[in-house]
Amino acid sequence: MASFFSSVPKHRLGGGLLAVALILAMAAVPASARRRAVRLRFYMHDIVGGPGQTSVVVVKGPGPPNPSMAAGNNFGDTVVIDDVVTEGPSVASKEVGRAQGTYMLASMVRPVFVVSITVALTSGPCNGSTIVVAGRDDTSEEVRELAVVGGTGQLRRAAGHVLWRTAKVESKLHAVLELDVHASVPAAAGSRRSHPLLIDQL
Predict the structure, then answer these.
(1) Backbone dihedral angles phi then psi of residue 20, each to the nearest 5 degrees
(2) Torsional class of 6: left (φ above 0), alpha (ψ -120 to 50), beta (otherwise)
(3) Helix or strand (DSSP H, E) at 182
(4) Is it true that the peptide bond before 62 is cis, omega within 30 degrees of 0?
(5) The pLDDT value given to residue 87
(6) CA distance linking residue 140 with residue 118, whole number of Å
(7) Rg (CA), the chain
(8) What single DSSP character describes residue 154?
């Protein structure tokens, strides 16, 4: 008995086999390997003193003093934060979450901090989700790159990077940081709803 393939012209058979191979290859990719890009942008208000203070020095480093910074900044200084996160750079902008974690002065000669924070989002399509950011913040540079190392909820298993910059200095006690997040999550996670925080979703 003639097979199905023996009755198909060779030029059509080649194309059909290629299509089958592509389908099989796609099916072989586990769902966990399929990822979707997510872009977020928000602003973190770090207030080191006065009314509305959001950061506190919990370890005063033994030194030496850091020569690139104002007097009183010592190697090893460690700060815990609970910073307000807003949709825009103004402190009067809509609050969309909190940035909670630590940063530590980790250079003896440069204004470099090691940062470890979790941004807990409380508004928008990612409400109830978190994103975890860690890395080296050299404040002498205009733009710094930190890593996205995880997340929960709509941002579960997030991975990528954050372009982190000082958007403006409100006062000597209040700095506004812009976090421009370039990340991806498993394709089954996350939301595709439109929201000002979501710059782009693929």
Answers:
(1) -60, -40
(2) alpha
(3) strand 174-186
(4) no
(5) 96
(6) 23
(7) 24
(8) G
Query: CA-CA distances (angstroms) from residue 128 to 22, 53, 111, 150?
Result: 38, 24, 33, 15
Q: What is the mean pLDDT of residues 95-116?
A: 97
pLDDT > 50? residue 13? no
* Residue 54 reports pLDDT greater than 80: yes
Per-residue tokens: 102: 């630590």
What backbone phi and psi angles, to 5 degrees, belong to 175?
Answer: -110, 140
- Whether omega before 186 lies within 30 degrees of 0, making that bond cis, reads no
| Confidence at 130, pLDDT banded by 50, 70, 90 | very high
| Euclidean distance between CA atoms 181 and 199, whole angstroms | 9
SS3 160: strand
**pLDDT reading at 159 higher than 50:** yes
pTM of the model: 0.78
And the tokens for 166?
Answer: 């000082």
C-beta separation of 4 from 17 below 8 A: no
Residue 201 confidence (pLDDT): 41
- The CA-atom distances, in angstroms, between 118 and each of 103, 115, 150, 182 are 12, 10, 9, 16
